[in-house]
């Protein structure tokens, strides 16, 4: 024979790893069919034949002898044919040479040969497995009540690679059972618009077969859309403190007088329905600050909300919630002070009388360094006072707030304990007093750096 031509239902699939291997050519001679890959690698499919058999078609309407069997790797397949009207395989050949059988002997692991029904298939290389992917629900709004409708898209792709797609299906799996949304046998993906309420779940199922050996690839991919309704924003409070020495760092000096006014406001509802009359504070405005106050002052606000809709019907069951603002606390402190006086001692009540001590409030003793009250604050802190006449020097701070001084470094060096007596406790204050009256001219100033 000189040439064989496959015309009917003959498939040659190529899945080589390079472009060169993807090109297959074939020629026939008296020994069989010679296949040549793109990289010039060759393999022979021997063909054996003998006389007899039924008529075949060399050209439509022609006569001759038909193929009766095809042997693939030792398995014999019977070929059916009939005379005069055509056959499964049409070929041109020397009429004197009769072909009855095709014997395919495959020794290449990268080549697969199959004969199914009326199709003879050669597959070269290893086909790429499918790579499906199910994207997150596009446009799904998590921040809603479970009876509010939402429109979004189911987006899934199923690149089949070198496999043959059998089916691709999209199911809704919310609740019990699977509900088929769409089933396709071709294409490469889903993009399905959905309008639903509540949380949802979906599953994409892909089934494909390998052209090498018919191996089935089957995978399912899940995607959920879960509701997570955000709460209302917390109320806010605007504060206006008006107290002696101020309220910086939310600290009020013990002994200070004045007031704190504030105004509460509801936060953003975030889709909830505000319940009228529920915006309240734990204390009423204004708060009066008195000299005898020693407790911290804490202020917060709260508000109640329900799910939206008539009687909260946007959610099943209807929901209620309340939110509370962060608590603002004004703490009470005893700050460092340095001053002069002719008094030989002070009572705690007198120390709490800021107006008689601090010069900025009209007092005569000296300076109160508001906010300086801990060991770390006082250590290495510089203090100063100005006085006239003969006075005792006083250094005062909270007894439990800071450790005792180790140095008071002034013009003469460390004057503790040489100039100052050992500290005494007066109520909740630690008091240092100079051992003797210190004379001063008009507007004399003295400075110390404290060490703890």
Write up this protein:
The N terminus is likely disordered. This protein starts with 9 loop residues before the first strand and ends with a strand. A hairpin with a 6-residue loop joins β15 and β16. The chain has 452 residues and is mostly beta strands. It has 3 helices and 35 strands. The strands form 10 sheets. The protein has a 5-stranded antiparallel beta sheet with strand order 28-27-30-34-33, with no helix packed on it. Strands 13-12-15-16 form a 4-stranded antiparallel beta sheet, with no helix packed on it. Strands 20, 21, 24 and 25 form a 4-stranded antiparallel beta sheet that branches.
Biggest beta sheet summary = 5 strands, antiparallel
SS field, number of helical segments:
3
Overall number of structural domains: 4
Number of strands: 35
Specify the helix fraction band: under 10%
Sequence stretches where pLDDT stays below 50 over 5 or more residues: 1-14, 16-22, 48-66, 79-93
What coarse outline follows from CA principal-axis ratios? elongated
**Beta-strand share of residues:** 35-45%
Determine the structural class based on helices, strands and strand pairing. Answer: mainly beta
Radius of gyration: 48 Å
Q: For the terminal residues, how far apart are their CA atoms?
A: 113 Å
Strand order of the largest sheet: 28-27-30-34-33
Whole-number mean pLDDT: 84
């Amino acid at each position: 024979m000189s040439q064989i031509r496959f015309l009917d239902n003959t498939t040659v699939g190529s899945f080589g790893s390079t472009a060169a291997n993807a090109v297959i050519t074939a020629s026939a001679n008296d020994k069989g069919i010679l296949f040549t890959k793109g990289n010039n690698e060759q393999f022979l499919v021997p063909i054996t034949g003998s006389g007899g058999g039924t008529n075949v078609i060399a050209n439509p309407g022609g006569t001759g002898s038909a193929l009766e069997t095809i042997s693939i790797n030792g398995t014999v397949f019977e070929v059916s044919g009939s005379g005069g009207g055509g056959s499964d395989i049409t070929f041109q050949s020397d009429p004197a040479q009769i072909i009855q059988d095709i014997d395919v002997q495959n020794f290449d692991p990268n080549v697969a040969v199959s004969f199914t029904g009326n199709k003879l298939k050669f597959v070269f290389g290893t086909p790429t497995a499918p790579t499906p992917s199910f994207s997150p629900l596009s446009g799904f709004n998590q921040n809603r009540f479970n009876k509010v409708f939402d429109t979004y898209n189911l987006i899934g792709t199923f690149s089949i690679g070198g496999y043959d797609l059998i089916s691709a299906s999209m199911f809704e799996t919310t609740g019990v059972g699977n509900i088929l949304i769409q089933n396709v046998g071709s294409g490469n993906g889903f993009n399905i618009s959905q309008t639903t309420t509540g949380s949802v779940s979906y599953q994409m199922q892909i089934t494909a077969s390998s052209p090498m050996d018919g191996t089935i690839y089957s995978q399912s991919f899940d995607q959920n859309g879960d509701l997570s309704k955000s709460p209302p924003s917390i109320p806010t409070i605007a504060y206006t403190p008006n107290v002696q020495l101020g309220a910086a760092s939310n600290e009020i000096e013990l002994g200070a007088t004045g007031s704190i006014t504030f105004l509460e406001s509801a936060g953003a509802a975030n889709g909830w329905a505000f319940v009228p009359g529920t915006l309240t504070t734990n204390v009423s405005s204004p708060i009066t600050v008195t000299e005898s106050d020693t407790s911290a002052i804490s202020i917060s606000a709260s508000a109640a909300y329900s799910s939206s809709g008539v009687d909260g019907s946007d959610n099943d069951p209807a929901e209620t919630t309340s939110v509370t603002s962060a608590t603002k606390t004004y703490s009470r402190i005893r700050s460092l002070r340095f001053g002069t006086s002719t008094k030989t001692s002070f009572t705690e009540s007198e120390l709490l009388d800021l107006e008689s001590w601090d010069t900025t409030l009209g007092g005569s003793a000296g300076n109160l360094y508001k906010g300086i009250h801990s060991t770390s604050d006082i250590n290495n802190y510089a203090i100063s006072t100005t006085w006239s006449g003969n006075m005792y020097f006083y250094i005062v701070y909270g007894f439990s707030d800071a450790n005792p001084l180790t140095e008071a470094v002034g013009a003469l060096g460390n004057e503790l304990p040489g100039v100052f007596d050992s500290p005494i406790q007066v109520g909740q204050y630690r008091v240092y007093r100079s051992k003797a009256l210190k004379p001063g001219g008009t507007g004399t100033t003295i400075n110390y750096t404290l060490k703890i």
